[in-house]
Amino acid sequence: MKNNNLLTCKPVSGIIAFSIPIMGSSLLQYCYSLVDNIIVGRYVGTDALAAVGNVGSINSFIIGTALGLPSGFTIPVAQNFGAGNKMKMNKYAANSISLALLIGVIIVILAHFLSTPLLRLIDTPENIIDMSASYVNILYYAVPIQMALNNFNALSRAVGESKKPLYFLIASVIVNVVLDLLFVGGFGWGVEGAAWATALSQLVAAVLAGLYILKFNKELSINLRDLKLDFKVAGKQLKLGIPISLQFTITSIGSMILQTAVNGFGSNVIAGFTAAGRVEQVLNIPMSGLGVGTMTFVSQNYGAGNYDRIIKSVRKILVLDICVSVICSIILVLAGPSVVTLFMTDYNDEIMFAARHYLSAIAQCYSLVAVLFVFRNTLQGLGFTYSNAIAGAGELFGRIAVALILTPYIGFNAVCYAGPVAWLLADIPLVVIYLRKQKQFKKLAQRGEE
After folding, report:
1. In 10 A of CB 410, how many CB atoms?
2. Most exposed: 34, 95, 171, 252, by fewest CB within 10 Å?
3. How many angstroms separate the CA atoms of 257 and 113, rounded?
4. What's residue 64's pLDDT?
5. Segments of the chain scoring below 70 in pLDDT
6. Range 202-205, long-range pairs (CB < 8 A, 24+ positions)
7. Alpha carbon of 212 to those of 100, 222, 290, 299: distances in Å?
8. CB contact at 8 A, 282 and 26
């Protein structure tokens, strides 16, 4: 196997180099919703922007939950890559593709039954509920496409290739921008046009990523007959993927509860909160990218038995990620409000107050996100995915306790600080679990030296 840079490189510089294309890919994936928000906000109006932003928590609950599964499905691929077991690696890779597509089809059916009841459950204002439903129901048709795309990209990263997904997404985002301008600005299709543009552009990325994995990737060797689902292998992959999916589910429920609290303040605050949230998501990308890079590094080195290398590298990446979080905090406060104005032409004082207040609260506690990404992805790479569900439960409790219980007493402040409290309650169990596993790895590393 030639693509073994993460097994032999200087850990920190290797992880950074591997993570930069992942950051670019995340930024481009984020551009799907960013472009939708900007074009909808400018061509259709503030209510339309609020309608698109309002479905974010529901989208995370239904689509995000499904998209978390491929991260677990492909952990054995990276571990067997590190161990040099090509036969097992290919078996897990092929099975992950079939399993992802099957689950994607099931999610499409369930999602259309759940969307409108969930919109009413989070108290979506009547003036935007129809637009929210129209937008999200179109996006659900693309769930199998998104599942396939995420799985193909995860397979690329598992075998040490992080650049190709970036190239495919560049083409996809260009298609998305063109179709958004055509469908929304040209044809006047409103939020439905934005949703169709997103779905079709994701199809482009999925086809390109699939062709690369099945035909041109030098590390993986997958034939069409290998795609027959092996239920025994699928069981092992689901055991790894479900806890990650549960993390998305649990945190998405917390986000829906938070969105319920936000919706009580009206369309202007929803729009300000939505736009500020988009800015925060952009600033999450460097820390998230380093986290995913760390996960791949840990998976491959765990498969190769490089336990001491894992321990030393995680410590250094944590310091780096905290430094990155401080820089991101400064940007949130200084540049964030200006970026918010890009999302709409009819912003007002109430919208800007909500956005500034939220960005300030997040910036004060952003290092908690760095800790979350490093330890969650490290434990995930080791195969201890149950920690994701535990951390998700901590996040859920934090959002419920602050946003739902305290909002009647301290108002919008509760919404702003719900995220930081959730991060803290997720960090605590992750750090405890990692420190326990670290002791085990130190013993294994010492045995290997004897």
Report:
1. 12
2. 171
3. 20
4. 66
5. 1-4, 31-34, 57, 64-67, 345, 444-450
6. 202/32, 202/142, 202/145, 202/146, 202/149, 202/172, 203/142, 203/145, 204/168, 204/171, 204/172, 204/175, 205/149, 205/168, 205/169, 205/171, 205/172
7. 17, 11, 24, 22
8. no
What is the rounded CA–CA span in Å between residue 13 and residue 396? 35
Residue 338: predicted pLDDT: 87
Q: Cα 96 to the chain's mean position, in Å?
A: 19
Q: What is the 3-state secondary structure (H, E, C) of 128-149?
A: HHHHHHHHHHHHHCCHHHHHHH
Contact 216, 159 (CB under 8 A): no
pLDDT of residue 2: 43
pTM greater than the 0.85 cutoff? no
Q: What pLDDT does residue 20 have?
A: 93
Pair of tokens at residue 406: 């305290």
Q: Are 142 and 67 within 8 A, CB to CB?
A: no
CB 240 within 8 A of CB 321: no
Per-residue confidence (pLDDT) for residue 65, from 0 to 100: 65
411: left (phi over 0), alpha (psi -120 to 50) or beta: left
Question: For the segment 338-371, what is each residue's pLDDT rounded down to a tens digit?
Answer: 888 877 767 788 888 989 999 999 999 999 999 9
Within 10 angstroms of residue 127's Cβ, the number of other Cβ atoms is 12
- Give the chain's radius of gyration (CA, Å): 21
**pLDDT at residue 1 in the model:** 40
Q: Residue 362 corresponds to which tokens in the numbers above?
A: 């997040």
SS (H, E, C) the chain: CCCCHHHHCCHHHHHHHHHHHHHHHHHHHHHHHHHHHHHHHHHCCHHHHHHHHHCHHHHHHHHHHHHCHHHHHCHHHHHHHHHCCHHHHHHHHHHHHHHHHHHHHHHHHHHHHHHHHHHHHCCCCHHHHHHHHHHHHHHHCCHHHHHHHHHHHHHHHHCCCCCHHHHHHHHHHHHHHHHHHHHHHHCCCHHHHHHHHHHHHHHHHHHHHHHHHHHHCCCCCCCHHHHCCCHHHHHHHHHHHHHHHHHHHHHHHHHHHHHHHHHCCCHHHHHHHHHHHHHHHHHHHHHHHHHHHHHHHHHHHHHHCCHHHHHHHHHHHHHHHHHHHHHHHHHHHHHHHHHHHHHCCCCCHHHHHHHHHHHHHHHHCCHHHHHHHHHHHHHHHHCCCHHHHHHHHHHHHHHHHHHHHHHHHHCHHHHHHHHHHHHHHHHHHHHHHHHHHHHHHHHHHHHHHC
Query: Counting beta carbons within 10 angstroms of the beta carbon of residue 77, is it exposed (0 to 12), middle (13 to 18) or buried (19 or more)?
Result: buried
* Residue written as token pair 């988009």: 278
